[in-house]
Amino acid sequence: MKVFGIIGWPVSHSLSPAMHNAAFRALGIKAVYGLLPVVPNSLKEAISGLKALGIEGVSVTIPHKEAVFPLLDEVSEVARRIGAVNTILNRGGTLYGTNTDWIGALKALEEKISLKGKRAVVVGAGGSARAVVFALKEAGAEIFLYNRTLARAHELASQFDAKAFPLDKISQAEGDILIQTTSVGLMEDRSVVPREILSRFQVVMDLVYQPLKTKLLREAEEAGCEIIDGLSMLVYQGAEQFRLWTGVEPPLGVMREAAENELRGEKHGN
Ligand code: NAP
Predict the structure, then answer these.
(1) Strands 57-60 and 87-91
(2) Residue 138 carries which DSSP code?
(3) Could you tell me the distance, in angstroms and rounded to a whole number, from the CA of residue 182 to the centre of ligand 1?
(4) So what's the pLDDT on residue 265?
(5) Do residues 238 and 198 share a domain?
(6) Do 114 and 94 reside in the same domain of the chain?
């Protein structure tokens, strides 16, 4: 029996166990994925514990995605450029860290629109925005960043050759795609994007997935946009982890259904 899990703090509301265990079951893989809560000052011991316990791989979530870098034997170039590790593979005692969040964002978007040469407006400049901006850059989109704290938008924009604006100028934003990466809308009926501007965009994606149809997505749908919910990115990033850990094609439909069922059952986080 192979053992996988998620390290973070807190992790009790994670959708990942439901998603990965459903995938293992569906494909008859003898493996289990569990919650591994790790308080911030125990990260070092937890990471060496992965080797000692022979845990095959873990997802990494807040607050450990950056702090884990110096504790790993090897880190991918992609994770370095994004500045976050969300996936660890234990390769016979050598711990390799990488990032699948950006692939999640890329696949969720490319299901609806080809990104090359498109103008993408990204709202927010936090950790999740970094993975989204990396994906957009890789795919050849032009990026316009809007954030409440302008300095943070400038910092991210300078790394990825994007343009930065303060969030209070969002009513001037236009483009082909709008991606909402702030936590606004999480378990609340609120949006930082005025509904009047939504008809300027072909596709609108929200990273918030609780509720699944946020106020932003409801208004975008009414404005005639194609919408992408936050679960899409979450499932695709998990599917890429599954592929890395098992070498097997992930059962996407099974993973999405398990995540949706879990979400419906309780209040959850990543
Ligand atoms: P983060 O690093 O803490 O960044 C938060 C962002 O939200 C910052 O840009 C922050 O602006 C902005 N913000 C927070 N409150 C705001 C407000 N009242 N008004 C305007 N802007 C506000 O968080 P994160 O890791 O990027 O996560 C953001 C959201 O994405 C969370 O809801 C998380 O659950 C979700 N998420 C989803 C996925 C997925 O796969 N679907 C993956 C990762 C995260 P300042 O810079 O001005 O503080």
Answers:
(1) antiparallel
(2) H
(3) 3
(4) 87
(5) no
(6) no
**Same domain, residue pair 148 and 55:** no
The range of the structural domain enclosing residue 191 comes to 103-228
List, for residues 160-204, the tens digit of each pLDDT value.
Answer: 999 999 999 999 999 999 999 999 999 999 999 999 999 999 999
Q: In total, how many domains does the chain have? A: 2
Whether 218 is in a domain gets the answer yes
CB of 106 closer than 6 A to ligand 1?
Answer: no
Whether 210 is in the pocket of ligand 1, judged by its Cβ within 6 Å, is no
Give residue 270's pLDDT.
52
Q: What is the pTM of this model?
A: 0.96
Q: How far is the CA of 126 from the centre of ligand 1 (A)?
A: 6
Task: For residue 194, count CB atoms less than 10 angstroms from its CB and return exposed for 0-12, middle for 13-18, buried for 19 or more.
Answer: exposed
Q: Give yes or no for residue 180 CB within 6 A of ligand 1.
A: no
Per-residue pLDDT at 268: 52
Q: Residue 86: CB within 6 Å of ligand 1?
A: no
Active-site amino acid positions? 65
Q: Are residues 173 and 75 in the same domain?
A: no
